[in-house]
Design a protein that fits this description.
Layout lengths: L25 H19 L2 H28 L4 E2 L12 E2 L4 H28 L6 E6 L6 H14 L4 E8 L4 H9 L4 E6 L10 H15 L4 E4 L5 E2 L1 H7 L5 E3 L2 E4 L6 E9 L2 E6 L17 E4 L1 H4 L1 H4 L18 H9 L7 E2 L9 E3 L27
Parallel strand pairs: 3-4, 3-6, 4-5, 8-13, 9-14
Antiparallel strand pairs: 1-2, 6-12, 7-14, 8-12, 9-10, 10-11
């Protein structure tokens, strides 16, 4: 390859140089080389000078952009409401052209809250707790006892709570009755009458009195109804009991002793006012009130709060076993009310039959041999 050699400039001998040396003299050349080498060594030997150079510029650029972004981020783009007084530092930032929509939303929200509050207050005012229905059932050991108890229990299960079923047995609480009551799903209390009922024609008198003592002792607040286990009851009857304020009564249909016709016994009503009585038996025409035992119900507070009802009697309200058979109803009602003005016809006009008293208990149906025991809890039967 061709090489181009640069010509040297002419030597000026008349030029003065520092240190008195010529430009290309050995002393000058050596001094220049020594200066260059010393400069290189000095620059390479200083590490701080080499580090400062490459990162200073990008660092300052990053710091500048960060400060610009921070200032832009803190700058509000909406409208700031001016405030006066002590609330100068409490300002609200709103986006532009949104004030009207916010006001509309607030009005709708306030209307919704006020409407829900009003409806809640109305519901609380309309709500009234249902009265407790206290059903008193005397029972005793016989062939159809389980069937009768199951039938009454199935009716009570269909009624809305609260319902309390007070079942009263004589002498001792049988295991069979306890098992039936446990499986019914109805709130119940199983009581025992300790009175001797062998010499009494109507054994249910003392059993009902045992239930009345229990209600008075525990001050149960509700409507008391005597429901024998061998009667037939409609669901509407138990629904109507909660409407009774003091004493309610209704007509009951019964089979005649010959069982070939039905007899109606109970009140004659004009609306809810009792104005007369149905009766067909001559032996019972001397009664003051012609009502069947399952044809009336009354407020339980009459038993334990007589001052509230201004009752003149100071003795407890109980059924009497000293009167003739068939007169227990009227003698008991005379302790509860003064006359028909204190009664309420159920349902209004007393136009429907709500329960039947059939007298269908089969007295001549014998138990199998060895099944009749004096003490049910100690029964041992040998099968062979």
């Amino acid at each position: 390859m061709a090489s181009i050699r640069r010509t040297l400039s002419p030597v000026y001998h008349d030029r003065h140089y520092e240190n008195g040396g010529a430009p290309f003299s050995p002393s000058s050349t050596s001094s220049s080389l020594s200066q260059k080498s010393s400069g290189k060594h000095s620059s390479s030997s200083d590490p701080k000078a080499s580090r400062r150079g490459p990162w200073r510029r990008p660092f300052y650029q990053f710091l500048a952009f960060f400060l610009i972004g921070f200032v832009l981020g803190m700058t509000p783009y909406g409208q700031i409401d001016d405030v006066n007084g002590t609330d100068r530092f409490n300002f609200e930032i709103k986006p532009p052209n949104v004030e009207e929509s916010l006001k509309r939303r607030e009005e709708v929200a306030v209307d919704g809250v006020s409407f829900s509050a009003e409806s809640k207050n109305k519901k609380e005012e309309d709500f009234a707790p249902r009265k407790l229905v206290i059903v008193v059932t005397p029972t005793y050991n016989r062939a159809m006892q389980a069937y009768y108890l199951h039938r009454v229990a199935q009716t009570l299960r269909l009624e809305e709570p609260p319902v309390l079923w007070i079942v009263v047995e004589g002498n001792a609480a049988s295991f069979e009755t306890s098992e039936i009551l446990r499986k019914t799903g109805v709130m119940y209390r199983h009581l025992v009458c300790k009175r001797n009922t062998t010499s009494i024609k109507d054994r249910g008198v003392h059993q009902r009195n045992t239930a009345l003592e229990h209600i008075e002792l525990h001050k149960l607040d509700g409507v008391v109804y005597f429901a024998d286990d061998d009667n037939i009851y409609s669901l509407e009857l138990f629904q109507s009991l909660r409407q009774i304020r003091r004493f309610g009564t209704w007509p009951v249909a019964m089979l005649a002793p010959s069982k070939n016709k039905a007899i109606l016994e109970g009140p004659v009503c004009n609306g809810s006012q009792v104005i007369g009585w149905h009766t067909n038996e001559k032996s019972k025409r001397l009664r003051r009130f012609h009502v069947d035992m399952s044809g009336f119900a009354f407020n339980s507070t009459i038993l334990w709060d007589p001052k509230r009802w201004r009752r003149p009697f100071s003795h407890p309200t109980r059924q009497l076993d000293t009167v003739k058979e068939g007169f227990q109803e009227t003698t008991f009602i005379e302790q509860v009310v003064a006359d028909e003005s204190d009664m309420e016809g159920v349902p209004p006009a007393c136009s429907r039959i709500l329960n039947w008293h059939l007298h269908l208990d089969a007295l001549d149906v014998p138990y199998p041999q060895g099944w009749v025991m004096q003490k049910n809890l100690e029964a041992v039967i040998t099968v062979g």
